[in-house]
Amino acid sequence: MEDKANQQLKHKQDVEEQLLKEQINLTFVSFKPVNLIKSFTKAVASPDIITNILSITIGLAAGFFSTRILNKTPGSLMKKVIGSLLLFGVTKIISRKPGAAKTVGQPIR
């Protein structure tokens, strides 16, 4: 009876050892540079991430260009204040509703 229990325990240990070796091998293969790059490109290719990156890029570009335009225009203090308020408003709109900025950035079909 003890011999049968020992055999079952030994068999269970062998099976678990084999599963552990397979898992270690899969982990090792998944951490190879080529596989890391593949998994990264799959993750980046998801529509949600592309949408977020596009929204952030449009917001940054709008802020950059509006700052460049406002800094180049010489004028009174009032014009600069109005320009800063306009920049603040545009930035707030884009941050709250990135869909509106995306429609501006999409090509006309």
Defining key terms:
mainly alpha
Overview of the molecule:
- By secondary structure, the protein is mainly alpha-helical.
- The protein folds into two domains: 45 residues; 64 residues.
- The chain is 87% helix and 0% strand.
- Helix 3 packs antiparallel against helix 4 and helix 4 packs across helix 5.
- It is rod-shaped.
- The N and C termini lie far apart (79 Å).
- The model has no long low-confidence stretch (mean pLDDT 77).
Quick structural gist:
By secondary structure, this protein is mainly α. Helix content is 87%, strand content 0%. The chain folds into 2 domains: 45 residues; 64 residues.
- Count of distinct strands: 0
Number of helices: 5
Strand content: under 5%
> Could you say which structural class the secondary elements and strand pairing correspond to?
mainly alpha
Shape, per Cα inertia axes:
rod-shaped
Mean pLDDT: 77
The first-to-last residue Cα distance is: 79 Å
Major sheet details: none
Helical content class:
over 70%
How many domains, as an integer? Answer: 2
Strand and helix map with partners:
Elements: H1 2-30, H2 33-44, H3 47-72, H4 77-96, H5 98-105
Helix pairs in contact: 3-4, 3-5, 4-5
